[in-house]
Amino acid sequence: MIGRLGDRFRAMIGRPAPDLLTKFRRRFPRLEGTVFILTYGRSGSTLLQALLNSAPGVHIAGESFDAFGALVTASERATRAHMTWGQDPRGPDHPWHGADMIDEWALEAALGLAFAAHVIRPPHDVRWLGFKEIRLQPWEDRFDTYIDTLRRSFPNAMILFNSRAAADVAASKWWAEHPPGDVARMVARLDARFADYTASHPDHAVHLHHDTTVTDPSSLRPVFEAMNLPFDVAALRAVLSNRLDH
């Protein structure tokens, strides 16, 4: 309910977002943009993270137990308070005193920068920063809300969805306590959302597939080119040759 209200209220406000890149560059002066790997557990996202981090100037952090989800909720609640109880100034003795002064746009920008500085924690000279997150199942019904907030909170945000064959995902120890059929249905639902979002937003979303990445690392060339990064297939093959320890 809060997510739907938040999206509707933002459309009503109709105010342009602040220049996020300028704000972020005060702390990270060489920053060009941000990139986020969104997926489910055991899709090969850690390998994708490592492949991106092999490029100079890139810092993609690992998971944070979906800490960003708390920022999404904070933005939704602030928006709801502002648009529901902050349409008019309230006196100091009113329970919603100050709700009219809530600036949810500034909140998102400030939270995004704080998240970058204190959770992602890239080096000062980073060109591309971001994180990967595998805990998307709780957001299935508010999928676009999650991504829209992400893109409003970080400059030039690119979304990389990562998919893998359901049987390979279900076979991993991470999903051992879940019936394979449940895992397969979860993979199918999220893969469909990945595909639909990418088809609707080709300017900033890419849908990758683990098997293709492993067998043909040159398939990542369009991602590197979109980020204006040198594409070194030998460096990618070197990353692929290292066995992950998780």
Write up this protein.
The protein has 246 residues and is of the alpha/beta class. Helix content is 49%, strand content 11%. The chain starts with a helix and ends in a 6-residue tail after the last helix. The chain has a single domain (2-240), classed as Rossmann fold, CATH 3.40.50. It contains 11 helices and 5 strands; from the N terminus they run ααβαβααβαβααβααα. The chain has helices at 2-13, 20-25, 45-53, 67-85, 104-120, 143-153, 166-170, 180-200, 210-215, 221-226, 233-240; strands at residues 33-38, 58-61, 128-133, 157-163, 205-209. The protein is globular, with a radius of gyration of 19 Å.
Mean pLDDT: 92
Q: What share of the residues does DSSP label as strand, in percent?
A: 5-15%
Strand order across the largest sheet? 2-3-1-4-5
Q: Kindly, what is the distance between the CA atoms of the first and last residues, rounded to a whole number of angstroms?
A: 37 Å
| Helical percentage | 40-55%
CATH class: Alpha Beta
| SSE pattern | HHEHEHHEHEHHEHHH
Unreliable runs = 1-16
CATH topology: Rossmann fold
